[in-house]
Backbone:
């Protein structure tokens, strides 16, 4: 995807981050226009609103449908903002393009489905659209890239990604876990791909929008897509994560744009230290694996099984406790230990299978 084109819209600042804002869903003409007017008054240039809403369960608000496209047309005519909406089928693409929607985005439930992605891609052939692809609900970078490749293969060159976090089972601080390393890896794999961050869907709560937006800015994301509603408490979908246009304006004004030049020198010194520490970490891990292989040899000679649950449990518990005392998150430490243990087991299995000893 080397020939991707930057997303440049006349009248929209090319300074990062590019801001897209608007309600989760278009509900009524009045709600759409009131929100749009307030956002426009704060200088927002790109308006989002979901017309077709993929809901987890039937019975929730599933979007107003094509009627809402007329309201988006009014937003454009009255405020001059560009408009963006979610598409999930061929019919959505055709209706949105016919209504002059400037940016199409593909939702997380759709990008996880290659059939749906291909249908959308086929509908986009010959259309000079701007398309943003949200990450699939599951943390699968290849699936995300594959979804974008389908759109790219249809001829779309103004293509971008939106990081909206990943679902996981159970209750967490975030509605969708950020797993920042995944969008970072995406940026490494496709360097010229603009990546937006959606702090609203990652956080799921109003109070998390500002810190997540700041983190995204610090990490160099191209833009932010933020849900904003004229009356969030009465929103028909995602009400706990939407902010009023005034609050959004406050959040955007509070964002700190780090001066990259001034900080790079100190940063380089710190990065050298990190490089050194990573080397040491790899050496230490290798030492641990060597000993683990020796243990594997011993277990083999004494016909013992590889994994002893009691020992495994002790390792996890004692290390997690220690890490927590040092200020690291127990979840993080557990993930690290499980990964180390998996590799250790893999290497011991190799020892077991090695018939030369
Ligand atoms: C949305 O943007 O309102 C939406 C449905 O998001 P996602 O696909 O990320 O859940
Ligand atoms: Mn939403």
Residues:
């Amino acid at each position: 995807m080397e020939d991707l084109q930057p997303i440049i819209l006349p009248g929209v600042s090319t300074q990062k981050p590019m801001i897209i804002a608007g309600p989760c869903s278009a509900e009524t003409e009045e709600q759409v226009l009131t929100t749009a007017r307030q956002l426009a008054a704060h200088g927002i240039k790109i308006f989002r609103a979901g017309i077709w809403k993929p809901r987890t369960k039937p019975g929730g608000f599933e979007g107003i449908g094509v009627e809402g496209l007329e309201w988006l047309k009014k937003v454009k005519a009255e405020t001059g903002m560009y408009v963006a909406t979610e598409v999930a089928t061929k019919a959505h693409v055709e209706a949105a393009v016919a209504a002059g929607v400037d940016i199409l985005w593909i939702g997380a439930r759709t990008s996880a489905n290659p059939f749906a992605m291909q249908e959308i891609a086929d509908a986009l052939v010959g259309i000079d659209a701007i398309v943003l692809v949200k990450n699939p609900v599951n943390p699968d970078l290849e699936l995300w890239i594959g979804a974008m490749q389908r759109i790219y293969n249809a001829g779309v060159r103004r293509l971008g990604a939106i990081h909206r976090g990943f679902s996981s089972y159970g209750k967490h601080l975030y509605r969708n876990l950020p797993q920042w390393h995944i969008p970072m890896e995406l940026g490494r794999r496709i360097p010229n791909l603009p990546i937006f961050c959606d702090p609203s869907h990652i956080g799921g709560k109003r109070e998390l929008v500002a810190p997540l937006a700041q983190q995204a800015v610090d990490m160099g994301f191209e833009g932010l897509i933020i849900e904003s509603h004229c009356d969030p408490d009465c929103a028909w979908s995602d009400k706990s994560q939407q902010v009023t246009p005034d609050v959004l304006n406050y959040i955007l004004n509070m964002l700190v744009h780090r001066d990259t030049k001034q900080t790079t020198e100190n940063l380089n010194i710190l990065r050298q230290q990190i490089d050194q520490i990573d080397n040491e970490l790899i050496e230490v891990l290798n030492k641990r694996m060597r000993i683990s292989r020796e243990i594997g040899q011993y277990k083999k000679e004494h016909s013992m099984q590889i994994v002893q649950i009691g020992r495994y449990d002790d390792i996890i518990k004692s290390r997690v406790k220690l890490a927590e005392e040092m200020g690291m998150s127990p979840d993080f430490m557990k993930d690290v230990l499980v990964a180390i243990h998996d590799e250790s087991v893999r290497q011991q299995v190799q020892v077991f299978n090695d018939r030369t000893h």
Notes: The chain has a mean pLDDT of 94.
